[in-house]
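Need tokens for this chain, all 89 residues.
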Amino acid sequence: MAQNNTDIKYLTPIAIDTKKKKYCRFKKSGIKYIDYKDAGFLLKFVNEQGKLLPRRITGTSTKYQKKVAQAVKRARHLALMPYVADLLK
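Here are the structure tokens for all 89 residues:
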């Protein structure tokens, strides 16, 4: 009698979608103060239209997200960053 082999074999391994763990870059780097005068750094937290990116996308903690929002608002007020832009980046 022939033995039925029911094992499924693949030529290439199946790609399992592993998500990278999001982390707060401020906690990891030990940054305490977010400088509103550094517009280049604040552009990382703003999309192409000039809107703030949410926490779920950037991975920033609540404490630092509030500080980032305040710094961006101050930079906009002093005309270091635009309020609205077509293609900011």
